[in-house]
Specification:
This protein is an alpha+beta fold. It has a domain of about 120 residues: Aminopeptidase. It is about 30% helix and about 30% strand. It has 5 helices and 8 strands. Strands 1-2-3-4-5-6-8-7 form an 8-stranded mixed β-sheet, with helices on both faces. Strand 3 and strand 4 form a beta hairpin. Helix 1 crosses helix 3. It is globular. Bound molecules: coenzyme A.
Amino acid sequence: MHQAPTQLITERLILRRPSLADAAAIYEFGRDSEVARYMDWPRHKDIQDSIEALESFAAEWESGSEFCWAITTKTENTAMGTIACRIESPRADFGYVLNRRYWGQGFATEAVRAVMSWVMSLPEIDRIWATCDTENLASARVLEKAGLQREGTLPRSTIRPNLSSTPRDTFIFAKVRDPV
Ligand SMILES: CC(C)(COP(=O)(O)OP(=O)(O)OC[C@H]1O[C@@H](n2cnc3c(N)ncnc32)[C@H](O)[C@@H]1OP(=O)(O)O)[C@@H](O)C(=O)NCCC(=O)NCCS
């Protein structure tokens, strides 16, 4: 079973394991329709949705199936977003979300770089990948800035429940380790 660092520290951020104490902060962005717009989970309607998400994060971490960190700054311990990673050797994938109050300051890119750096330190991983809706230009830009290549489009592959019940086109991005 894989294990992950409980903290990843960058220039401005501390990525740490979330806890139930983060429920209000998670609900603040989980309920925001602009934030949830392109996500593959329904917008949180009640703080109980955020509590259940946090319970899933804890169970997934313990089982090693997915590692979700709260994104916090060094000056503020509030969970301003989350970033989660699944290790399925030789591949790993990740996804992220950030409270709208913190957009446009490079925080998502900084968090992505930290997770990628940890993942690429694992010798068994040769490919790290992520997807985003083809209209989610901010997310596509984050992936590009973090050094992933856009490999193509998966037509009608992902239901974004906050937009429609019809599957939508998805970009796939990846970074691969050079062969030795
Ligand atoms: C996507 C998201 C994580 C970006 O977070 P962020 O901290 O603002 O990202 P960064 O500041 O690191 O980079 C954003 C980049 O997108 C660009 N951008 C933002 N909105 C854009 C738009 N509508 N069109 C094109 N580019 C856009 C910014 O200019 C910036 O690029 P730059 O540095 O070259 O100027 C944030 O918007 C978010 O949480 N959105 C909702 C959840 C989501 O979509 N998650 C990803 C699911 S795949």
